Amino acid sequence: MSAAAAARSRPGEPAFDSDRALLALLLAGVAVPLLVFVVWPLAEILKLSFDTPKGLGLGNYAVYFATPKFARVLVNSLEVAVCATLITTVLAYGFAYAMQRCLPRGRRVLGAIALLPLYAPSLLQALGILFLLGRNGAIARIFGVDIDIYGFTGIVVADVFYAFPHAYLILSAALAIGDARLYESAEMLGAGRARIFRTVTLPATRYGLMSAVFVVFTIVITDFGNPMVIGGDYSVLATEIYNQVSGQGNMAMGAVIGVVLLVPAAIAVFVERWVARHHHAALGDRSDPLRVVPSPARDRVALAYSALICGAIALIVLVVVVASFVTLWPYNLSMSLRHYHFEVQNGLAPLWTSIGVSLAAAVLGVVVVIVGAAVVRRLGPVLTQALYFLSVLPAAVPGMVLGLGYILAFNRPDNPLGFLYGSLAILVICNVYHYHAQGFLIATTAMSQVSRVFDEASTCLGGGLARTLRTVTLPLVAPALVSIGVFFFVRSMVTLSAVIFIVTPATQLAAVSVLLLDDSGNQNQAAAYSVCIMAVVAVALIALEATLALVRRRGGMRAPQLAAA
Amino acid sequence: MFLTLAGIRKRFGAVTALDGVSLAVDEGEFVCFLGPSGCGKTTLLRIIAGLETPDEATITLDGRDLMRVPARLRNFGIVFQSYSLFPNLTVARNIAYGLACRGWDADATRTRVEAMLDLVNLRDYAERRPHQLSGGQQQRVALARALAPQPRVLLLDEPLSALDAKVREDLRTEIKSLQSKLRVTTVMVTHDQHEAMELADRIVVMNRGAIEQVGPPRELYDRPANRFVADFLGRMNAWPDRDGRPVLGVRPEHVELVAAADAADGANGVIRGTIERVVFLGSVTRVVVRAGERPCIVELKGSRLDLAAGQPVALRAPGEALLRLEKPAA
Predict the structure, then answer these.
(1) Per-residue pLDDT averaged across A161-169, rounded?
(2) Is A151 left (phi over 0), alpha (psi -120 to 50) or beta?
(3) Which of A379, B117, B260, B282 is the residue whose CA sits 20 to 30 A from B311?
(4) Could you give the ipTM of this predicted complex?
């Protein structure tokens, strides 16, 4: 790691400085695990996908694209992703507009309901839709009609709900900031509402819109849980990888499909990152904040629209909860707890395993991303770029691909880290690095709120990196640390895609149990298991809110204090 | 010399921030870097502090090469323009920060913190948080924090710029008396000529990454080396000489106003003109006179009700007040 020191050192500077040594050590501590737990598994997948009996080559890909079934899977994935992306973005833009630019009643509650899908296992949407619209769903039962929701339609609908909160959060942030001066001048010039929207609002939010499109596309194309439950015979890339690896033991084809999935996902992520950076630069700091004034007619439309969306989101969650507590949905609606006697491997034990793994991932995740963010703050520009790239790279790696990469990299005797395979530790590590990008971005954003003047003041007073972090920087970003911890906890509780390949009967996780229950036709028990997961997540979120409220009350650390410069 | 800077160069991309700056500062001296924004004065201060790495530089303190010492170990105190007190620590703990870095024990720290609080008259504020203090109080704590570990050099980066005019003046006086009491070598960056003239033993006038002139305030005012210095410190009326290149200048307060009627026609050194504007500024009245191509500014003591725009007047500048100005170095 002398590269770190060399890049910053100039002739005449001391050969050894304890602070610089610590920085190099921390850089190594952040970068080496990223290389081992993200880059290496990826490299293994790439290697295997090019590995043919005749040496390295494109043979596997030739087979892939020559097989009509596989080519079809790629087309399916793209079809689903494009459709769901368009629908989600349009719906979420309207919803975000209603939340940020209108004043409907119960705005806070509506905004909170829209986030529900974030806190449920990823196949919950599909499960809920089946309870409503499936062959044995409520609609089929009440009206006696036979709807075919399985396949393309079902996946798109489920993924729209699944990705909705992500799009909403991005668009909401974009719509929250607006330059009042632009709106005032447009109005003074006599522009009507439609024209103002077209000429001011839409252009000002175009980067947010692009960001949302790429984020939703990535989420949908990499989603595994929903297509597994509601896809029927309609296969997509993520489920096909699982099918090849777990069903047929065909690692090589799994790797090829993994790379085929990786390419569009990675492109979408890097375009999104580029857009997001551009977006920040485009924000003027001199603009007047926009103030939304009440407008009864507009606010009623906004309320009707957002209530409709929230109703649908809440209904899906609700129907899963209800189905878990009745004797046999939708035929016998008498209360029963029988679905909570789980007929699945190890019963409720996986839930406890999940809680333990998620707690460990929360602690490790916070340490890893906060050290990463602190190191990035102190590095020269070249190393910053490199570490930043490594840190957000995991966002481009679909969970299924990462999981398969872990099998390839760690499930072999010649790997000195092979002992990790099959342990709980590898599940913790997998979750931390699967969600590293998002955690890292929250951490760097929080750190960037802390003025660099504090670092410089500390340095001039004789404070080293460790003291500055301990005494000044970390206390100032403490609330963000709690948020990041809860983020890792929640993601680890609900995730399915990466861990599905590396759980063992002894290290079964809750979300995997849900999938297994559903797979064995036990939808009601799958619902009950999902409810248990959501209950744990709810407790974590309540704990987060309580902690943040406490910090706010005690601290006196108001935002303006953080951003001194 | 105590602190010496030689051949300091720094580029930010295509922009040259400092173009070979050299300077020597005596022990106990108060030096001000004065110049317009973007002249490189803050970059120079940050290089002295060790917060910025120069492309080329020799910096020594007491003969010791400072380029080999990281900012953390230079033992320089610094006060920034923006409030830089650690918001999560009390005033007392902010002041004790540098002492903790140097491993002072609890008793010595307490004594020192109390002494520093007394020094800046904030004894009752020890347990307050920074956000409970006014801007002026925060900068006084920042000063106490910087001085607590007995720094070799005190660096002030426009410490008064963020404050209201009245508070700024009070704190200016306080800084001056503190500095003369402690005799700590001080380097301050400012773009305010009055601040520099009141505080500095010597002013370093900077422009476009280079030093234009160095000297005591009085010398710079009375004998500015060039137009830039003359214009930056006070005002200067300037005329081209007959040869064209150098110019002649005279300070507004040295120009005498003579009633047009009294001026003998063609008398030596008398210029005729018309009053363009009369501005009453309290202690002085500024009169803009149009004489030939360029306006001439005249400053007269007190209020002058007898003068009004449109009035013909004659100006006279005593020969000893005339200055020969070179072109700026940069």
Answers:
(1) 96
(2) left
(3) B282
(4) 0.87
**Chain segment B75-95, per-residue pLDDT in tens:** 999 999 988 999 999 999 999
B86 with A17: Cβ contact below 8 A: no
Whole-angstrom distance, CA of residue B242 vs CA of residue B50: 49
Beta carbons of A432 and A365 less than 8 angstroms apart: yes
What is the sign, positive or negative, of the torsion defined by CA atoms of A465, A468, A473, A475? positive
- Other CB atoms within 10 A of residue A196 CB: 16
Q: What is the pLDDT of residue A500?
A: 94
Query: Residue with structure tokens 């002295």?
Result: B48
Whether B217 contacts chain A with CB within 8 A:
no
Q: What is the DSSP string of B98-135?
A: HHHHTT--HHHHHHHHHHHHHHTT-GGGTT--GGGS-H
CA gap A446, A146 in Å, rounded: 51
Q: Any idea which residue has 């890909």 for tokens? A: A61
Q: What is A303-322 written as a DSSP string?
A: HHHHHHHHHHHHHHHHHHHH
Return the pLDDT at B249: 86
CB A499 within 8 A of CB A421: no
Q: How far is B102 from chain A (nearest CA, A)?
A: 7
Best CA proximity match to A156, nearest among A230, A260, A247, A258: A230
Tokens of A556: 């006196």
B88 contacts A557? CB cut-off 8 A: yes
Question: Which comes out higher in pLDDT, residue A184 or A481?
Answer: A481
DSSP string, A197-265: IIIIIHHHTHHHHHHHHHHHHHHHHH--HHHHHH-TT---HHHHHHIIIIIT--HHHHHHHHHHHHHHH
Q: Is A561 on the interface with B (CB under 8 A)?
A: yes
Shortest CA distance to B263 belongs to which of B226, B184, B316?
B316
